[in-house]
Amino acid sequence: MPLAQVVLGNGADELIRLCAVAVIDPGDRGVLPWPSFPSYGTSIACCGGEAVRVPLNGRAIDLDALLDPPAKLVYVANPNNPTGAVIDAGDLRRFLEALPGDVLCVIDEAYADYAEVAPEGVELVRDGAPRLAVLRTFSKVYGLAALRVGYAIASPEVADGLDRVRNIFNVNQPAQEAALASLHEREAVEGRIEHARRARRELADVLAAAGLDPEPSQANFVYADVPGGDGLGLADRLLHAGVMVRALAGFGAPQAIRVTVGTDEENRFFAHALESVT
Question: What is the Cα–Cα distance from 209 to 213, expressed in whole angstroms?
Protein backbone atom coordinates (compact mmCIF):
# COMPACT_ATOMS: atom_id res chain seq x y z
CA MET A 1 0.00 0.00 0.00
CA PRO A 2 1.52 3.41 -0.95
CA LEU A 3 2.47 5.48 2.07
CA ALA A 4 0.36 8.32 0.69
CA GLN A 5 -2.70 6.18 1.43
CA VAL A 6 -1.79 5.64 5.11
CA VAL A 7 -2.79 8.26 7.69
CA LEU A 8 -1.72 8.04 11.34
CA GLY A 9 -3.89 9.01 14.28
CA ASN A 10 -3.92 9.00 18.07
CA GLY A 11 -5.68 5.66 18.09
CA ALA A 12 -8.52 4.81 15.74
CA ASP A 13 -10.65 7.16 17.83
CA GLU A 14 -8.94 10.28 16.48
CA LEU A 15 -9.32 9.00 12.94
CA ILE A 16 -13.04 8.43 13.52
CA ARG A 17 -13.28 12.11 14.42
CA LEU A 18 -11.11 13.22 11.50
CA CYS A 19 -13.36 11.40 9.04
CA ALA A 20 -16.30 13.43 10.31
CA VAL A 21 -14.32 16.68 10.25
CA ALA A 22 -13.30 16.02 6.66
CA VAL A 23 -16.82 15.65 5.25
CA ILE A 24 -19.52 16.82 7.68
CA ASP A 25 -20.78 20.40 7.55
CA PRO A 26 -23.43 21.70 9.96
CA GLY A 27 -26.75 20.09 9.12
CA ASP A 28 -25.27 17.14 7.20
CA ARG A 29 -26.21 13.61 8.12
CA GLY A 30 -23.94 10.79 9.20
CA VAL A 31 -25.23 7.24 9.55
CA LEU A 32 -24.15 4.55 11.99
CA PRO A 33 -25.47 1.16 13.14
CA TRP A 34 -26.87 1.02 16.66
CA PRO A 35 -25.84 -0.46 19.07
CA SER A 36 -22.27 0.28 18.06
CA PHE A 37 -19.28 2.39 19.08
CA PRO A 38 -20.50 5.72 20.58
CA SER A 39 -17.64 7.77 19.10
CA TYR A 40 -19.27 7.59 15.66
CA GLY A 41 -22.28 9.57 16.80
CA THR A 42 -20.35 12.04 18.93
CA SER A 43 -17.92 12.74 16.08
CA ILE A 44 -20.80 13.62 13.76
CA ALA A 45 -22.44 15.77 16.42
CA CYS A 46 -19.22 17.66 17.18
CA CYS A 47 -19.15 18.77 13.54
CA GLY A 48 -22.71 20.08 13.73
CA GLY A 49 -24.14 17.11 11.88
CA GLU A 50 -27.10 14.87 12.58
CA ALA A 51 -26.21 11.36 13.69
CA VAL A 52 -28.75 8.87 12.33
CA ARG A 53 -28.68 5.63 14.33
CA VAL A 54 -29.90 2.62 12.37
CA PRO A 55 -31.02 -0.37 14.48
CA LEU A 56 -29.24 -3.67 14.08
CA ASN A 57 -30.97 -6.62 12.48
CA GLY A 58 -30.96 -8.82 15.54
CA ARG A 59 -27.33 -8.46 16.57
CA ALA A 60 -25.93 -7.94 13.06
CA ILE A 61 -25.42 -4.70 11.16
CA ASP A 62 -28.26 -4.09 8.69
CA LEU A 63 -26.36 -2.87 5.63
CA ASP A 64 -29.49 -2.35 3.54
CA ALA A 65 -30.97 -0.09 6.21
CA LEU A 66 -27.76 1.97 6.32
CA LEU A 67 -28.35 2.86 2.66
CA ASP A 68 -31.74 4.48 3.23
CA PRO A 69 -31.07 7.80 5.02
CA PRO A 70 -29.38 10.32 2.66
CA ALA A 71 -26.03 11.04 4.27
CA LYS A 72 -22.48 12.31 3.73
CA LEU A 73 -20.81 9.72 5.97
CA VAL A 74 -21.45 6.15 7.11
CA TYR A 75 -19.58 4.26 9.82
CA VAL A 76 -19.41 0.45 9.88
CA ALA A 77 -17.61 -1.48 12.62
CA ASN A 78 -16.30 -4.87 11.50
CA PRO A 79 -16.31 -6.75 13.87
CA ASN A 80 -19.03 -4.67 15.46
CA ASN A 81 -18.45 -3.24 18.91
CA PRO A 82 -20.17 -4.33 21.18
CA THR A 83 -21.78 -7.39 19.56
CA GLY A 84 -18.62 -8.88 18.00
CA ALA A 85 -20.42 -9.81 14.77
CA VAL A 86 -18.54 -9.80 11.43
CA ILE A 87 -20.07 -8.73 8.13
CA ASP A 88 -19.99 -11.18 5.24
CA ALA A 89 -17.35 -10.05 2.73
CA GLY A 90 -19.68 -10.34 -0.26
CA ASP A 91 -22.39 -8.34 1.50
CA LEU A 92 -19.90 -5.60 2.34
CA ARG A 93 -18.72 -5.34 -1.26
CA ARG A 94 -22.29 -5.07 -2.50
CA PHE A 95 -22.98 -2.40 0.12
CA LEU A 96 -20.04 -0.30 -1.05
CA GLU A 97 -21.13 -0.63 -4.66
CA ALA A 98 -24.61 0.58 -3.71
CA LEU A 99 -23.42 3.64 -1.77
CA PRO A 100 -23.81 6.97 -3.60
CA GLY A 101 -20.51 8.29 -4.93
CA ASP A 102 -20.45 11.31 -2.61
CA VAL A 103 -20.69 9.28 0.64
CA LEU A 104 -17.58 8.52 2.68
CA CYS A 105 -17.63 5.00 4.13
CA VAL A 106 -15.51 4.35 7.21
CA ILE A 107 -14.92 0.71 8.10
CA ASP A 108 -13.60 0.43 11.64
CA GLU A 109 -11.57 -2.78 11.91
CA ALA A 110 -10.15 -2.19 15.38
CA TYR A 111 -10.83 -5.80 16.38
CA ALA A 112 -10.14 -7.42 13.01
CA ASP A 113 -7.08 -9.38 14.21
CA TYR A 114 -9.27 -11.54 16.44
CA ALA A 115 -11.65 -12.62 13.66
CA GLU A 116 -11.30 -16.18 12.42
CA VAL A 117 -12.16 -15.01 8.89
CA ALA A 118 -10.24 -11.77 8.38
CA PRO A 119 -12.28 -8.72 7.33
CA GLU A 120 -11.38 -7.51 3.83
CA GLY A 121 -11.36 -3.75 4.29
CA VAL A 122 -7.73 -3.29 3.28
CA GLU A 123 -8.26 -5.45 0.18
CA LEU A 124 -11.21 -3.25 -0.78
CA VAL A 125 -8.95 -0.19 -0.68
CA ARG A 126 -6.27 -2.04 -2.63
CA ASP A 127 -8.89 -2.98 -5.23
CA GLY A 128 -9.63 0.70 -5.78
CA ALA A 129 -12.85 1.23 -3.82
CA PRO A 130 -13.44 5.01 -3.84
CA ARG A 131 -14.42 7.16 -0.84
CA LEU A 132 -13.34 4.50 1.63
CA ALA A 133 -11.28 4.63 4.83
CA VAL A 134 -10.39 1.48 6.78
CA LEU A 135 -9.28 2.04 10.37
CA ARG A 136 -6.87 -0.15 12.32
CA THR A 137 -5.21 0.30 15.70
CA PHE A 138 -2.29 -0.84 17.84
CA SER A 139 -4.48 -0.52 20.95
CA LYS A 140 -5.95 -4.04 20.91
CA VAL A 141 -3.91 -7.09 19.96
CA TYR A 142 -0.61 -5.14 20.07
CA GLY A 143 -1.33 -3.89 23.59
CA LEU A 144 -0.37 -0.25 23.04
CA ALA A 145 -3.64 1.44 24.03
CA ALA A 146 -1.97 3.97 26.35
CA LEU A 147 0.38 5.13 23.58
CA ARG A 148 -2.48 5.88 21.13
CA VAL A 149 -1.43 4.69 17.69
CA GLY A 150 -3.99 4.10 14.98
CA TYR A 151 -3.93 4.31 11.22
CA ALA A 152 -6.28 4.66 8.30
CA ILE A 153 -5.74 2.95 4.98
CA ALA A 154 -7.78 4.91 2.49
CA SER A 155 -8.39 5.73 -1.13
CA PRO A 156 -6.07 8.52 -2.34
CA GLU A 157 -8.80 11.16 -2.23
CA VAL A 158 -9.82 10.26 1.31
CA ALA A 159 -6.25 10.00 2.62
CA ASP A 160 -5.53 13.47 1.24
CA GLY A 161 -8.65 14.83 2.92
CA LEU A 162 -7.72 13.31 6.29
CA ASP A 163 -4.21 14.71 6.06
CA ARG A 164 -5.63 18.18 5.48
CA VAL A 165 -7.53 18.13 8.79
CA ARG A 166 -5.02 16.11 10.81
CA ASN A 167 -2.80 17.79 13.39
CA ILE A 168 0.75 17.69 12.09
CA PHE A 169 2.27 16.22 15.26
CA ASN A 170 -0.58 13.96 16.33
CA VAL A 171 1.32 10.70 17.01
CA ASN A 172 4.43 11.15 19.16
CA GLN A 173 7.81 9.55 18.49
CA PRO A 174 7.80 7.01 21.38
CA ALA A 175 4.39 5.76 20.21
CA GLN A 176 5.65 5.40 16.64
CA GLU A 177 8.76 3.55 17.79
CA ALA A 178 6.72 1.18 19.96
CA ALA A 179 4.33 0.48 17.08
CA LEU A 180 7.21 -0.30 14.72
CA ALA A 181 8.86 -2.57 17.30
CA SER A 182 5.61 -4.44 17.93
CA LEU A 183 5.30 -5.37 14.26
CA HIS A 184 8.20 -7.79 14.75
CA GLU A 185 6.55 -9.60 17.67
CA ARG A 186 4.51 -11.97 15.53
CA GLU A 187 4.84 -14.93 17.88
CA ALA A 188 3.51 -12.93 20.84
CA VAL A 189 0.67 -11.47 18.79
CA GLU A 190 -0.33 -14.86 17.41
CA GLY A 191 -0.36 -16.24 20.96
CA ARG A 192 -2.70 -13.46 22.09
CA ILE A 193 -5.03 -14.12 19.17
CA GLU A 194 -5.12 -17.85 19.89
CA HIS A 195 -5.83 -17.16 23.57
CA ALA A 196 -8.61 -14.67 22.79
CA ARG A 197 -10.35 -17.04 20.39
CA ARG A 198 -10.33 -19.89 22.90
CA ALA A 199 -11.21 -17.75 25.90
CA ARG A 200 -14.14 -15.97 24.25
CA ARG A 201 -15.78 -19.35 23.61
CA GLU A 202 -15.24 -20.29 27.25
CA LEU A 203 -16.67 -16.95 28.42
CA ALA A 204 -19.73 -17.47 26.22
CA ASP A 205 -20.28 -20.87 27.88
CA VAL A 206 -19.95 -19.29 31.34
CA LEU A 207 -22.44 -16.54 30.47
CA ALA A 208 -24.93 -19.01 29.02
CA ALA A 209 -24.64 -21.27 32.07
CA ALA A 210 -25.51 -18.25 34.25
CA GLY A 211 -28.70 -17.65 32.28
CA LEU A 212 -27.49 -14.81 30.06
CA ASP A 213 -27.82 -14.79 26.28
CA PRO A 214 -24.33 -14.42 24.76
CA GLU A 215 -23.51 -13.68 21.11
CA PRO A 216 -20.80 -15.67 19.28
CA SER A 217 -18.00 -13.13 18.95
CA GLN A 218 -15.19 -12.47 16.51
CA ALA A 219 -13.54 -9.88 18.77
CA ASN A 220 -11.75 -10.13 22.13
CA PHE A 221 -14.96 -9.71 24.08
CA VAL A 222 -18.37 -11.34 24.43
CA TYR A 223 -21.70 -9.53 24.30
CA ALA A 224 -24.60 -10.92 26.34
CA ASP A 225 -28.17 -9.86 27.08
CA VAL A 226 -29.08 -9.91 30.76
CA PRO A 227 -32.29 -11.54 32.06
CA GLY A 228 -34.68 -8.75 32.95
CA GLY A 229 -32.75 -6.30 30.78
CA ASP A 230 -30.75 -4.68 33.58
CA GLY A 231 -27.23 -4.63 32.21
CA LEU A 232 -26.16 -1.78 34.47
CA GLY A 233 -27.42 -3.59 37.56
CA LEU A 234 -25.46 -6.74 36.77
CA ALA A 235 -22.35 -4.71 35.96
CA ASP A 236 -22.67 -2.96 39.32
CA ARG A 237 -23.04 -6.25 41.20
CA LEU A 238 -20.01 -7.67 39.43
CA LEU A 239 -18.03 -4.53 40.29
CA HIS A 240 -18.77 -5.07 43.97
CA ALA A 241 -17.59 -8.66 43.51
CA GLY A 242 -14.27 -7.42 42.14
CA VAL A 243 -14.88 -7.64 38.38
CA MET A 244 -15.31 -4.77 35.94
CA VAL A 245 -17.37 -5.41 32.80
CA ARG A 246 -18.80 -2.92 30.33
CA ALA A 247 -22.41 -1.88 30.85
CA LEU A 248 -23.72 -1.02 27.40
CA ALA A 249 -26.32 1.72 27.85
CA GLY A 250 -23.90 4.18 26.22
CA PHE A 251 -23.55 1.83 23.27
CA GLY A 252 -27.32 1.61 22.76
CA ALA A 253 -27.85 -1.73 24.55
CA PRO A 254 -28.90 -1.05 28.17
CA GLN A 255 -30.10 -4.65 28.45
CA ALA A 256 -26.62 -6.09 27.91
CA ILE A 257 -23.03 -6.29 29.12
CA ARG A 258 -19.74 -6.79 27.29
CA VAL A 259 -17.07 -8.97 28.88
CA THR A 260 -13.50 -8.62 27.64
CA VAL A 261 -11.22 -11.65 27.57
CA GLY A 262 -8.65 -11.66 30.36
CA THR A 263 -5.99 -14.10 31.46
CA ASP A 264 -7.12 -17.61 32.33
CA GLU A 265 -6.94 -16.71 36.02
CA GLU A 266 -9.01 -13.55 35.48
CA ASN A 267 -11.58 -15.45 33.43
CA ARG A 268 -11.96 -18.05 36.20
CA PHE A 269 -12.38 -15.25 38.74
CA PHE A 270 -15.09 -13.73 36.54
CA ALA A 271 -16.89 -17.08 36.31
CA HIS A 272 -16.98 -17.41 40.10
CA ALA A 273 -18.06 -13.79 40.54
CA LEU A 274 -20.85 -14.14 37.98
CA GLU A 275 -22.11 -17.27 39.70
CA SER A 276 -22.19 -15.42 43.02
CA VAL A 277 -24.32 -12.48 41.74
CA THR A 278 -26.79 -14.28 39.45
Answer: 9
